[in-house]
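Good morning C.,

I know you're traveling, so I'll keep this short. The sequence:
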Amino acid sequence: MACNFSIPHYREILESALENGYTFVGYDDVGFLSNSQKACILRHDVDYLPEHAPAFAHVEGELGIKATYFFQVCAKPYNLREAGNYQVVQGLHKLGHTIGLHFDPTWKPHAKLEELASLCRQDKAVFEAITGIKPCEIVAFHNPHRFAEMVLNKEVLGMRHTYEKVYFSDIKYLSDSQGWYEGCMCLVFTSRRYPVIQLLTHPYIWPDEPSSGFIEDMAHLVQARTDELTDHLITYHPVCKRNETQFRARIAQVQEEKRRRWV
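The tokens, ready to paste straight into the viewer:
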């Protein structure tokens, strides 16, 4: 299969890792690796569309791989208390994957370095209250470029995170966030050029069938949430339900009016 961002190729990437001698490990295992061991920390940041995560877990389960899934508690596109998202987290936990907090401190304007650990503990408490699952010790910052000077290659007193030097620059860090930086991961694993890798993926980028690129992925994301909200209102709001045809037509009209303004 050609290299692309799709679930079938994700399977091929993991198969390439296994075929080339890589072991999948957790964050706590890094300090115990031998000098000759090839290893990969497999991390998924669930920024949007939690419903995409089980497809990853299905592939990983068939290959005997465990990963760490990081979820937000205050994401604009989703919340953990919504039934479907709650069930996703529960399902991943039952499969033996590690569940962690995808931490975004920017809800508090001008949050200071010395506040991060406290804010993180608050989010972890909310996470556990919602899901009944205690998130793992280590956290993954969401969009760390917004406060890079505080966290990248830095230790934060009172908390552990995935951008500490030991995980970010002492080993190879690779992410799919804007496309692969050094070619497709299947080729990186085949080359065996890096003994230890932290591999970050974002499930919303990986559909069942490959898309034309990142912008198409984001457009599908927006449309998925639009359709979801539309269906929710038709199901539960009596006025929208009684006027479903008119409601859908008006939504389509509004979208077309916006499209014409942008063309």
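Safe travels,
E.
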